[in-house]
Amino acid sequence: MIIAVPVDEMEKTSPVCISFGRAPFYLIFDDEKKTFDYFDNNSAFNAQGGAGIKAAQSLVDRNVDVVITYRCGENASKVLGGKAKIYKAENANAKMNIEMFIAGNLQLLNKVSPGLHGHAQQSGK
Known about the structure:
Layout: E1 2-7, E2 25-30, E3 35-40, H1 42-45, H2 51-61, E4 66-69, H3 74-80, E5 85-88, H4 94-102
Parallel strand pairs: 1-4, 4-5
Antiparallel strand pairs: 1-2, 2-3
Helix pairs in contact: 2-3
């Protein structure tokens, strides 16, 4: 099983990023191999629009089975579709959220947000 978590830093102990589409990085955990990897979400992070869709497509392209995040927009959720289940992150670092998921202690994300259309990342932030 491949698990993805949007993170602020390329560290297992990084906080889960509050933004799904505009997360700077994604932590990818391979449950079978027990390996942690990261990818730079630069193309979605800097996008004028559709950041969630681009980030979701990157996860689908990486064969992710599970996404752990605080929130997910409607369009990104549609891209993930039946390919990846979305779980609600808890107030803990990325590694702890993965451990909670594996232990069966995270809930499915039941509510998708309409997204932040037109709210592109401001330069200098």
